[in-house]
Amino acid sequence: MTIRAFLGAAAIVLYGTLASLAVAGNWPHHELIASFLQSAAFLFILAFAATRSHALPWNPPQLQAAGRWTATAILLFLALASVLSWNVVRGVTNPDESSYRFQARILAAGRLAAEPPTGAPVRPLDVPAPLKYNQHILWKNGWFSKYPIGWPMLLAIPERFGWPGIVNPMLASGILVCAAVIARSAFGPTSGLLAVLIAVLSPYFLAQYVTRMSHAAAGLLVAGSCLLLLKGLRSGGLVHFAAMYLPIVIAFHVRPLTALIAGTALTLGALYYLRFKRTLALKVLLMACLAACAAGGSVLLYNRAFTGSALVSPYALQRGVIVPLEISAALPRMANNLMSVWRVSGLKTVLFAFPGVFLLAAAGFWAHRNDSQTAWVLMSLFAAIVLGHLVQFESSGSVIPERYWFEGYFGVCILAGEGLLVALRTLRPSRRTLAAGACALSLIQMEMTAAASRILVARSSPSAAVRTIAETFSDCQCVVFLRDSPPLFYGAHLNRNGPDWKSAGAFYAVDPEPEQRSSWTRTLSRNRWIVVSYDPITQAGVVVAN
After folding, report:
1. Which residues, listed in sequence order, are joined to residue 481 by a DSSP beta bridge?
2. Lowest model confidence (mean pLDDT) among 218-222, 294-298, 344-348
């Protein structure tokens, strides 16, 4: 290995070490610090590339067994992801997870909603503090999650048998399979392997498969729909276009806005490439209309079942309105969203994605802009998902990167794999230099993944610790009040009740004012009360009053 190659690898490792320390240690402005270090490392690499003798021949590595390596990488990812997910699953990193899991427990019992406890109001807006869990709906007609039913249905059986930690790793592995198939079909087996490696070495990917959020499920549905579209464009067969809409319709019951954006983008792509095949284009348009009717009709039925009105969604019911407040297409709000929320989200996403992944994806797209429908479809899909979510003006509460954009990230990884091959053909490194660079990049991404894992575990640990101590009283015929310990733990983020709360020993409630504990204990038909919380000094759940 030459001195310059060694220095290049050392620069990459130095970047990774300092960036991961900044992230794991939560240094002030660590996103800016780590992004600056990343830029400095890339400038060093570019300077090294500019001094290379381009007269040297470059023979690309022969990856005859790329398919087997890809399958091995996906299986290894599934095993390691399941272990990491298991360490995070007992707590919550986002209050949405508690809402999803509450609904999953209800569905596992064969019901749509739990019976409302005594004290439930006539309107969801009037929920008393001890019963007010984040993203839940509680009123006279029932107790349930405000979110669509699709993701809780996938969680229901695993939640009942105590192994929900395997679901998202399996769904994420499905996304990797779709990405590998798309990349292999469009660009070759080496691109398929690189797309998978770039994805699994991205902490961005990590953040979605270790939690109980719905993005991995929506991501697999979008990736599967994209794969079917590309198969249809290659074969010209109607069956692939028809099948393309099934995942989209299902996605409307997982993440409705994402499904709407992805379905629109893929339909427009199909109609554009079929513009000279008018008969087939009209059939695809007809199927799109039928899918829209199926999605819309099923959503109306869902609304009626949960809210009593087909035109009022649970999102709107929770806030006492007709149109959900989370969505606004007003230009001033969208502009403010772009300049405030998305600016920070974009910086975090660049930091926690694979180094230079968006530049590499741009290079891959540019190299195939004239000869690949796949490149245009993947680029357009990601751009549509990012821009379409400008109407979602409320903060996503993402722990590290922006979770609203995740469903299009598989396409970025595919294009980045091709972009990496373009860069290698341009730089023409020796095999030793290539090996050193690959090892260095893998090392820094492992460091960044470890740093991101530490953040996720730290976010979920307080609620996991409170859950552990609270569940020791599950048979006590008492009310277990969950007391806030800001900013690490909030009782409203951890609903451990189920549809059988009446016959269960303990009822879990958010801690009210001390003088209200006894009255709420009588209201909920229990004999005594206990207050549990999180102690940041001992980093454990504790009983603070009884």
Report:
1. 509, 531
2. 344-348
How far are the Cα atoms of 125, 249, 332, 498 from residue 323, in angstroms, in the given order?
A: 15, 21, 19, 29
Look up tokens 């006894």; give the residue.
Answer: 518
How far CA 254 is from CA of 28, 109, 258, 371, in Å, comes to: 36, 20, 9, 34
Task: Give the DSSP letter of residue 524.
Answer: T
Report the run of H or E that residue 545 belongs to, with start and end.
strand 540-545
- Residue 158's alpha-carbon distances to 15, 32, 212, 360, 467, in angstroms, are 40, 40, 12, 38, 18
What CA–CA distance (Å, rounded) separates 87 from 418? 34
Rounded Cα gap, residues 314 and 112, in angstroms:
13
Instruction: Over range 296-307, report the average pLDDT.
Output: 93
Instruction: Give the tens place of pLDDT for each residue, 471-518.
Output: 999 888 899 999 999 989 999 999 999 999 988 889 999 999 899 999
In degrees, rounded to 5, the angle at the alpha carbon of residue 109 between the alpha carbons of residues 103 and 469 is 65
Which has the minimum average pLDDT: 40-44, 214-218, 280-284, 422-426?
40-44
Tally Cβ neighbours within 10 Å of residue 62. Answer: 8
Q: Which helix (H) or strand (E) holds 136?
A: strand 136-139
DSSP structure class, residue 391: G
CA distance 386 to 383: 5
Helix (H, G, I), strand (E, B) or coil at 162: coil
CB 34, CB 455: distance < 8 Å: no
The pairing of strands 136-139 and 142-145 is antiparallel
Residues recorded for the chain: 546
Measured distance CA(148)–CA(103) in Å, rounded? 10
CB neighbours (10 Å) of residue 480?
A: 28
pLDDT of residue 90: 75
